[in-house]
């Protein structure tokens, strides 16, 4: 099957342009998946049993940075802001970020394993970071 743009085959495009077109579609699909993961969990205040982990994806560096799971005591905005500040202090480059939550530690660990597997399949290696949000 030939690649198409808006219903038309990519005839006449250079191999380099076809590569960038496919790469852009892959990047959009990755971003959509990350957003879907973040949106699946409602943005409600965390209960005492809620857990989270944070991630940052870098397609350019082929890395998927992840924190260890932690109890979600603070608001999502505060946690994500702290995560972003910490990543910048570490001079880590990333294009996507988020802090999905789960009902308990086991659920978050399962989600984290799934995210690491998915990113490995996309050619990004997982890098576990020693980060916890401030109380």
Give a description of the structure.
The chain contains three helices and nine strands; from the N terminus they run ββαββββαββαβ. The strands form three sheets. The protein has a four-stranded mixed sheet with strand order 7-4-5-9, sandwiched between helices. A three-stranded antiparallel sheet has the order 6-3-8. Strands 1-2 form a two-stranded antiparallel ribbon. A hairpin with a 4-residue loop joins β4 (55-58) and β5. It is elongated and about 55 Å long. Mean pLDDT is 82; it is low at 42-47. It is α+β, with helices and mostly antiparallel strands and 135 residues long.
Distinctive features:
135 residues, alpha+beta, 4-stranded mixed β-sheet, 3-stranded antiparallel β-sheet, 9 strands, elongated
Contiguous low-pLDDT stretches (5 residues minimum) are 42-47
**What is the helix tally?**
3
Radius of gyration: 17 Å
Proportion of residues in helical segments: 40-55%
Question: What structural class do you assign from the helix and strand content?
Answer: alpha+beta
Number of strands: 9
Largest sheet: 4 strands, mixed
What global shape is seen?
elongated
Strands of the widest sheet, in order across it, are: 7-4-5-9
The helix-strand sequence is EEHEEEEHEEHE
The separation of the N and C termini measures 53 Å
Q: Beta-sheet strand percentage?
A: 15-25%
Q: Which whole number gives the mean pLDDT?
A: 82
